[in-house]
Backbone:
């Protein structure tokens, strides 16, 4: 979902298993994978031989991440902490007309009305029931699977998001939701936001979906009319262009803006998916799942130290 993962393939784990079968040639990986495919609906491919001694064959790439996000006190705490920080920053930003959070903000902006830009998935909307469905049934993200989830319009709000957004709304801050969701997902997205009672004063116009010039393009357009007081997201792309890069480059980009984190930029955790993960398979979302996993294991070797 990336957010939201920008590919639209439909192969489930079973397809990945078929491919692995056809590659059978004595590789330990294949032998292990066949075992996984035979026994688990998700069909997670195991690591390369020797990469993780003792790793159970029956697992899914997102198991720990989804458990953490859905059930840990630590997730609850860090997200609430983030929205508290966001509220404190918002107060400071409102009192300081020279404050802008958007790199795309140019020209004189002190007199412009304030606006807040948030990502949607895993920032405002909690899609973990869909991620749970991926682990149990669907094997991996597909556009069709995500659309079905969107149509249900039953994502909860992340902890503290509703309170923060209502506070911002009471302060007269315009709220823009910027997402890589597809245009076809607009009405179900709006239904979900309305169901949660989130600020939608400008209606559909404040929900900015997938654009050719990405989230940075949306920020530039908002910044032409508003002073952007805060950015909130769960992915580097929610703050700065250039997120689709190698892991080291992404970390350097985050470091280059060190003084903005926790002040003008509030990052929420998402260990389940995102550019941070897709970079290991060069953002080639069409790759079979087992190939992605192999590349991620190679990434583990390449990025063992900071
Ligand atoms: Mg997101």
Residues:
């Amino acid at each position: 979902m990336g957010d939201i993962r920008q590919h639209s393939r439909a192969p489930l784990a079973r397809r990945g298993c078929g491919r692995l079968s056809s590659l059978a040639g004595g590789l330990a990986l294949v032998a292990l994978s066949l075992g996984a495919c035979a026994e688990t609906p998700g069909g997670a491919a195991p690591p390369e031989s020797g990469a993780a001694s003792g790793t159970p064959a029956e697992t899914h790439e997102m198991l720990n991440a989804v458990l953490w996000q859905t059930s840990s006190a630590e997730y609850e705490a860090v997200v609430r902490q983030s929205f508290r920080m966001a509220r404190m920053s918002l107060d400071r930003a409102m009192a300081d007309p020279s404050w802008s959070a958007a790199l795309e903000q140019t020209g004189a902006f002190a007199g412009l009305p304030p606006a807040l830009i948030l990502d949607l998935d895993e920032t405002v909307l909690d899609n973990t029931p869909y991620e749970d469905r991926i682990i149990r049934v669907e094997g991996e993200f597909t556009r069709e699977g995500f659309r079905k989830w969107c149509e249900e319009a039953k994502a909860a709000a992340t902890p503290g998001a509703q309170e923060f957004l209502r506070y911002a709304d009471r302060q007269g801050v315009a709220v823009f939701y910027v997402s890589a969701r597809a245009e076809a997902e607009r009405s179900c997205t709006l239904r979900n936001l309305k169901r949660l009672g989130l600020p939608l004063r400008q209606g559909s116009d404040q929900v900015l979906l997938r654009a050719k010039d990405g989230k940075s393009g949306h920020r530039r357009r908002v910044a032409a009319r508003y002073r952007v007081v805060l950015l909130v997201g769960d992915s580097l792309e929610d703050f700065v262009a250039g997120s689709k890069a190698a892991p080291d480059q992404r970390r350097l980009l985050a470091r280059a803006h060190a003084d903005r984190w926790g002040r003008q930029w509030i990052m929420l955790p998402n260990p389940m998916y995102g550019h941070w993960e897709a970079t290991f398979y060069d953002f080639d979302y069409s790759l079979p799942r087992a190939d992605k996993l192999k590349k991620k294991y190679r990434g583990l070797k390449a990025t063992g130290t900071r």
